[in-house]
From TrEMBL:
InterPro entries: MXAN_4361/MXAN_4362. It comes from Vulgatibacter incomptus. This is TIGR04563 family protein.
Amino acid sequence: MAGTDKRKQSLYFPEEMLQEIQVEANRQDRSLSWIVQQAWRIARAEITRFPSVNDVIGDPPLPDRREEQGY
């Protein structure tokens, strides 16, 4: 691999998701980093279809469901 750029970055996952990723990493005998990188490669095309924040500015805000539930 010529010139692979390796930078350290902190990412934060919900506890349950992190546990699921860890189980899969253990199953495949791979690192957490490798699992997340592969997931990004697989999901990238789908994620790019999500609207950006700038695409939805001006839309009316969604109702706050907490008010309906008495929170």
